[in-house]
Amino acid sequence: MKKLSKYIYNAETLLYEKHEESSAARLFKVLGFVAAVVALVCLYFWLYTSVFGLDLPKTAYLKSENEKWKSRYEMLGHQLDGQESTLNGIEQRDDDVYRSILGLEAIPEEVKQAGFGGANRYAYLDDLGGNELLKKTVKRMDVLTKRAFIQSTALDEVAVVSKQADEMKSCVPAVPPICPEKGKYRVSSSFGRRHDPVYKNKIAFHDGIDFATGKVGYPVYTTGDGVVEKVRYQFFGYGNEVIIDHGFGYKTRYAHLHSINVTQGQKLKRGQQIGQVGNTGKSTGPHLHYEILFKNKAVDPMSFMDLSMKPEEYNAMVDAVNVK
After folding, report:
1. What is the DSSP letter of 105?
2. What is the spatial distance between Cα 130 and Cα 275, in angstroms, rounded to a whole number?
3. Which bin fits 249, alpha (ψ -120 to 50), beta or left (φ > 0)?
4. Residue 223 near residue 288 (C-beta atoms within 8 A)
5. Which residues does 187 contact at the CB level (< 8 Å), separation at least 6?
6. Could you write out the DSSP letters of every residue in 181-236?
7. Distance CA 102, CA 100 (A)
8. Domain ranges in the chain?
9. Using one digit for the tens of pLDDT, what is the confidence trace for 228-239?
10. How far is CA 69 from CA 59, 219, 227, 258, in A?
């Protein structure tokens, strides 16, 4: 094996003496040095990570970046909390105030949340290595965007209907169906549960108000602008009746009439005469049964009219729309 020669100074002889070293010896020294370096590096990492509990530089950098992104997501989450709170307030005002006043249906919760169930629409985030915080943030943004779009559409509907407010004022059944002149009538039965006037022992719900006049022929007037939906002559039940559709969810029923002056499909103005008080159908005396239906549900007519209205004002309204 080839030997490596080198000269080493001898302090005793004051001469450079020739020394020869084999390649194998030289290789062992190199390998030993490398092994020592590797051992020292491993010892360093062991002491750095296990004994002192420190992270490697790259790991520390990645953790730092992860914390930065986590802080950004949390900040975005707080901003979304504020936006959601604002949107909740708008939705509540829309349902409880705007839509209620204008007679519009509230937006169902299932409509607001539609399109976010079923299949995993965020599977692509798994493919991109997205964590749960990222998926949660993206989903919240999607939900709020959809809700904001639905609410914007709902407010557009409110805006359209609100422009029809003047028309709505004249359509809502807001006056008595007969002239409220004292001594000419009495409220013989109110809205709610009562003893049936025919079957005395039976308690039933009364869907309207009965105006007893003591005689047949007292004029009956429509309580709001509308279109005659139904005219029916029958021997039982409501007797001769008229149903008027006022729009905006409102309808009115006038029953037990003696005669009827209108026809189905006819357009009417508030205060226009539709017939006369009668005693037809299931009736125990001359009276008008009057109902208000809102979205096909009976409501108390007394909440819509003022029986203290002066007869002069009422007759002026009637004279303005009825041709003599």
Report:
1. P
2. 73
3. left
4. no
5. 209, 210, 211, 212, 307
6. -TTS-EEEE-SEEEE-SSSTT-EEEE-SEEEE-SSTT-EEE-SSSEEEEEEE--SS
7. 5
8. 3-51, 67-163, 177-321
9. 999 999 888 899
10. 15, 77, 63, 79
End-to-end CA distance of the chain: 139
Rounded distance between C-alpha atoms, residue 223 and residue 176, angstroms: 6
What is the full DSSP assignment across 43-110? Answer: HHHHIIIIIS-PPPHHHHHHHHHHHHHHHHHHHHHHHHHHHHHHHHHHHHHIIIIIHHHHTPPPPPHH
- Average pLDDT score over the chain: 82
Helix, strand, coil proportions of the chain in percent (round to 5)? 40, 25, 35
Q: From 123, 159, 148, select the one nearest 138 (Cα to Cα).
A: 123
Check: CB of residue 98 under 8 Å from CB of residue 158. Answer: yes
Our measurement of the distance from residue 15's CA atom to the centroid of its chain's CA atoms, rounded to an integer in Å, reads 102
CB 317 within 8 Å of CB 270: yes
Residue given tokens 């204008």 in the structure block? 102
Report the alpha-carbon distance of residue 291 to residue 208 in Å, rounded. 4
Do you know the residue count of the chain? 324
Query: Which CATH code, of 2.70.70.10, 3.40.50.300, 2.40.128.30, 2.40.30.260, is assigned to 177-321?
Result: 2.70.70.10
Residue type, 260: I
Q: Is 160 in a helix, a strand, or coil?
A: helix
| Beta-ladder partners of 211 | 187, 288
Q: Model confidence over 127-151: pLDDT tens digits? A: 656 567 777 787 888 888 888 888 8
- pLDDT, position 104: 74
| Side chain identity at residue 207, one-letter code | D
Query: Global pTM?
Result: 0.54
Residue among 263, 251, 257, 249 nearest 224 (CA): 251
Residue 114 tokens read as 């539609």
